[in-house]
Every structure is written in structure tokens, then in C-alpha cells.
Amino acid sequence: QVQLVESGGGLVQAGGSLRLSCAASGRTFSNYAYAMGWFRQAPGKEREFVAAISWSGGSTSYADSVKGRFTISRDNDKNMVYLQMNSLKPEDTAVYYCAAERTYATMALSKRVDFGSWGQGTQVTVSS
Predict the structure, then answer these.
(1) Angle, vertex CA 95, rays to CA 93 and CA 99, nearest 5
(2) In terms of C-beta density within 10 A (0-12 exposed, 13-18 middle, 19 or more buried), how is residue 127 classed?
(3) Disulfide check for 109: which of 23, 76, 114, 117 has CB 3.0–4.6 Å away?
(4) What is the pLDDT confidence band of residue 127, given thresholds at 50, 70 and 90?
(5) Please, are residues 37 and 90 in contact by the beta-carbon 8 Å criterion?
(6) pLDDT tens sequence across 103-124
(7) Which residues, 6+ apart, have CB-to-CB distance to 96 below 8 Å?
(8) How far apart are CA 28 and CA 26, in angstroms?
(9) What is the pLDDT at residue 72?
(10) Which backbone phi and psi does 91 adopt, to 5 degrees?
């Protein structure tokens, strides 16, 4: 079983930056390869894909709405995944969730149904 804990959310003005972190733990996480992803859910909306990274870090994928502004990265030695968010917009306001899926796939996953483990989320609010 994998446990995921997000941190780094908060209130920021439009144009600002935030860095989200996801700490992964669990016996299986240390022993197997896991693809990781970030999703977000705004009030009254469906949870949507933001970014993903393959287990090796060699492949990344982004939603069109965040390309060029957000960067996903991981540190496998520390069991950490990050989401650097720059040039934030009010429409980026949402609860951001970290997700994990055990797989050796070389390509980053990008569908919600691909991921089996989820964190509790961290709130990001961007004021105009």
C-alpha cells in the first residue's frame, strides 16, 4: 500500500509561483516502480489531469492548460514528487491531488483511471 501526502499549497496572487510536494511512503513504494501524477479539482468541477511523470522520470506529460507554466519532477532517492507552478492564474485555483500507480511503463500516464493511489489534496488559491 502506498501513502501520499501533499504539501505546499496556499494563497498566491496571479502571476506568482508555488511548489507543491508529494511525499510517498509504504513498503511497496520503496520496492517497486511507480508512475506519479498531479490532478486538480475546482469547486463544482470534475477532477482533471494536470501533469504526470514516469517511474524513471524520463517521460512527462502535461495538460494543455498548464504547458509552459508547470513542471513536474521527482526525486526517487527521497520518494518525492514536485509540481513547480509558475505564472499562476485564478483559473488554477483548485485542490491539487498527488496520485501514484505501480507500473514500469516508460510513458507517463495521463488518465485519472490509470492511478490507483491518491493523496488527500492541498488547496491552491490564486487571487486576481
Answers:
(1) 130
(2) exposed
(3) 114
(4) very high
(5) no
(6) 988 888 989 999 999 999 999 9
(7) 6, 9, 20, 38, 39, 40, 50, 83, 121, 122, 123, 124
(8) 6
(9) 98
(10) -75, -5
